[in-house]
Automatic annotation (TrEMBL):
Residues 1-28 are annotated as: Disordered. The lineage of its organism: Bacteria, Bacillati, Actinomycetota, Actinomycetes, Streptosporangiales. This is Dihydrodiol dehydrogenase. It comes from the Bacteria.
Length: 92
């Protein structure tokens, strides 16, 4: 009988909490994130250049795809940077 390989883990640098993450890539279906102001559809897509995270806004009919490097970059931004992005209004 072979021993189970432990799932990879990531440590949150802010509080040291160790979080397991799925080895199999997780669910294949889209995820809808919504509140009273907006809804977005997030999904993992395969492109000829590798895996991307696609974020689509049905209300604005806009879509963006991020690779792992771009997502990593977002993970270490200061909250003020995100606030400045929220201040921008989408235009035609």
């Amino acid at each position: 009988m072979s021993e189970a390989v432990p799932a990879p883990r990531a440590e949150n640098p802010d509080d040291g909490e160790v979080l397991p993450y799925p080895r199999d890539g997780g669910n294949e279906g889209p995820i809808v994130v919504a509140n009273e102001f907006v809804d977005v559809v997030v999904r993992r897509v395969e492109t000829r250049n590798g895996v991307r995270l696609e974020i689509w806004s049905p209300r604005h009919n806009t879509c963006v795809r991020f690779d792992a490097v771009a997502l990593d970059c977002l993970s270490y931004q200061e909250p003020e940077f995100i606030t400045s992005l929220l201040a921008r209004k989408p235009g035609p």
